[in-house]
Amino acid sequence: MKCFCMFMLVWLAMVAPTSAQTVETAAQAAVPAPKRQLQALRITEAIKLDGQLDEPIWQQAPIATDFIQQRPNPGPHEKHPTEVRVLYDDANLYVGAIMHDVSQDSIMRELSARDDIGNSDFFGVFLDTYHDQLNGYSFIVSTGGVQVDARYSPAGGEDGNWNAVWDSRTTMRGTDWLCEIRIPYSAIRFSKAPEQLWGLNFMRQRKRDNQAFFWNEVKPAVDGFVNQWGELRGLRDITPPLRLSLTPYVSSYVNHFPYQEQGTRNTSTSFNGGADVKWGINESFTLDATLVPDFGQVQSDNQVLNLSPFEVQFQENRQFFTEGTELFNKGNLFYSRRVGATPIGFSSVSSQLRKGQMGPDGERRPGEAVVSNPGVTRLLNATKVSGRTKNGLGVGVFNALSNDVYATVRDSVDGSRRDVLTQPFSNYSIMVLDQSLKNNSYVSLINTNVTRVGSTYDANVTGGLFRFANKKNAYAVDGRVVYSRRRGNKFGSEKAIDDQDGYKYQVGVSKISGNFTWGLNHGIESDKYNPNDLGILFGNNNISQGVYANYNKYKPFWKVNNLYTYFNLNHSLLYKPTRYQNANVAAGFNTTFTKNFLSVGLDFDANPVTHDYYEPRQYPLGDYFVRLPANANVGGYISSDYRKKLALDVNGGVRRYDTDDRLERARPRRMGYGWSISPRYRVSNQLNFRYSLDWNLSQNQVGYVNGDLDESLPDDAEFRKNYPSDVLLGRRRVLTVTNTLSGAYTFNNRMSLTIRTRHYTSTVNYADFARLGKNGQETLVDYRRNRDNTFNAFNVDAVYSWWFAPGSQVSIVWKNASSSFLEANEATPLYFDNLNNTINTPHNNNVSIKILYYLDYLMLKRKLAS
């Protein structure tokens, strides 16, 4: 605690203003810069997109220049000028930019895959087409011609998963580099007004000096981004076009797994076809639909050994569910992996098998066995309609359909087969209304619904959200109220669902701009609140409250470029019954040194005794909890300069617990250790490698014994007699090691090859066991079954991608995957034994090719007309 007190004194000393001049400067830094204006020039002759900017009309357009630095030192004007001009016609917006520099050697230009800038200079244009100062687009081009695009919204922040079809070219000219961008109106949305007023900003990155500049100054002490853009004027008589495109696809797969079973083929093939449709219903709203989707080429999930009472949340890699979903993510009520997820009856198939039995002749007759049990629900289609009116009302509608899913089981005697339903025909839908207000504020209404055919339950969640900021954008209040409703029977049962009605609310007040910001929050999640049919929640039944404070210095001082600090204090109670759960205090800082751009950070947190009501897996919550002794953690990281060919990230931490002497013999002290090292090496502007090693060790951790109890074993039968009132806890050592190696070779700005290899191993070794009673009481027991286990997972994802035309792509993917779960004497904590086991475990190999071809109605119409 002495270290923490010292840290707080230093933190308070930094927060306290040192002079009247400091206060004045901080106040000025929290006021948005005046909005600059730029006139766009209408053209009647075609522009050749070649990155040359040699058409005479470019010289007639007004110039945007004198960019202002945003990092690492906010405020200074650029020394190497940037000149930007904007043209437009009836179909496109054109942006031409000249970036002056010292020499070509000063212009960094690493090639990378689409949506990845890499170690390169870049130029970007930002558009707020409804001028609501909340929502916008960005179109960014690196010196090598690599394109990056994104959308901005209060709900999703920067959404880099959004992709548009646009075109660009870059060239080098003397000591300068040039960029020419063509943005078709079909790629953006805007109103039908005869004269348009758009929000506008430009950005330039000079990677050599790690500098970023904006045409309209963006102050880091001001809350918000889109509200700090300038204005584009002069757009007249442009009409939102008919936005209609079709992207058909064909794909083929070859899959091999060495079953080595009679009657089962090791190799299988498949051929698929479908399409994505995009239709601009009007100038504001767009319909996106995927018909017979194929997501087989997405990156493999990072499988882990899950010892917690909660599910693992996996990253969404399917483009349809990552692109343009900012409205549907309002309130965090939508977890897209629920759509097409593991069938709800996947794990219950084994309980429906006919068991083996003794025949009248005294011989045992085998029962049924599972032949196939699909782990993924195949979607029939998915559709979303989204947009925002000229008055700032955002509307989003999402709908998806999945078909019945069946497992197949086979009778071991006569070979007959039957199907077992694991997922009924289901409809998933979301409705969102989001009204943008002045001062970076909004109110929203969200509804999610899952309807399933048959007697199993349906689910509905409705939430309201708000955020109101004052005129100076200095303070804000926010909150939400959510109601969950479930009706019907549990899947495969006649028993009604037991959490039919639940609610959640949260309110907060905060200071949002300036060097010093703070906030207070309070919330409740009732014991019956459950949004998990289309959302994700790890634990309900909570009353939580917290306070935070941040003090940031954005301008260089001493030997550093900036300083970011934080302080959090949180407290949590069980909602029903109202009982203490935990408290937490945390603080930390990070900064970047001026000369070598070395970034460092330090974090600290402390927790008094915690009552974990979820770990015992006993419901309803309240009687059983696992007691965690008071503990504290110190951690930090170091990250070197990514501009260098060789860069390194290192982080680590240590958590120390108080001793636990409640039992007849004191337990050894719990400890937690973790560290990771991640070097990256850039061989050239086209080839790079990254490696990551993560190592985590928990010693004398006490938790629920993972794995099922087997009634046929005497030790387990003792606990099964009183199940679920008896809970078996184990003191264990958990060692987890993850190795990830990736490499990328970029042929040009439209063609790349990437490969990612990951090996994960986690080993659990139990030392002793205890029976958990009510109110956290533990009694050591003589339980002798070997519960040690090891989980290994291995994946290779290799992807060749070629964007042969705007919006059109050929991708060839190879996936190699294997996993194993070893128990008792087979489990081993030795890393190379686990690696050897992984290599010798049967692997699934999958090779696929997929071809997308983008067809735009307006483009086809122009070609046919000519």
From TrEMBL:
Which UniProt key words apply to this protein? Signal
Indicate the segments forming the Carbohydrate-binding domain, all copies.
49-207
GO BP term, example: carbohydrate catabolic process
Q: Which residues form the signal peptide?
A: 1-20
Q: Name one GO molecular function term.
A: hydrolase activity, hydrolyzing O-glycosyl compounds
Segments forming domain DUF5916: 240-863
Q: What is this protein called?
A: Uncharacterized protein
Origin organism is Hymenobacter wooponensis
